[in-house]
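Notes from the 1:1 (GR / supervisor)

We went over the backlog. Supervisor wanted to see one worked example end to end before approving the batch request, so GR pasted a single chain during the call. The sequence is below; no edits were made to it. Supervisor asked that the structure be written out right there so they could see what the output format looks like.
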Amino acid sequence: MILIKIGGGKDINLEAVVSDIADLWPKMKGNLIIVHGGSQTRDEIAKKLKIKVKVVESPSQITSVFSDKDLIDVFLMSYAGLINKRLTALCQKKGLNAIGLSGVDGRLWQAKPKPFLYVKQGQKVKIVRGNLSGKVYKINSRLIKLLLNNDFLPVITPPAITKEGEIVNTDSDLAISAMVKS
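Structure output shown during the call:
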């Protein structure tokens, strides 16, 4: 199986990326999955809705987005909605039988919620609660195999879902790592 990660930055030419994937498709049909981000679009939509995107830094200098309920809604609008459907449509335009999904759909990406974050603020480290994020630990491999075995091209994006059914933001690179291991 080949996993292709498409980032969410401003300068990504999705049409060119999809054209390259279309060239691979005849050889890779049934073994190809796309995972995408959408940070640029998320930030643009959040700005229009006057929702602040708060970036926090861990003590190990890893940055992440603090995801409260409002930002989860923006994630759903931008990642699972706008970007996922546009990318899926581009794939269809190129003859790829793409199906757009988020990690929530079919419990594709199940995550353990993070009860708190360690956040570096100046020289201090603080515990911050109320963050709706999690780490993917379980993949619905049965759903992935069903799609691949029927010549669909899965186009997958965050967010993920917890065992309890709560939608959480997740790092797509770590989700890909979980997919490779499953």
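Supervisor's comment: The chain has a mean pLDDT of 94.
Batch request approved.
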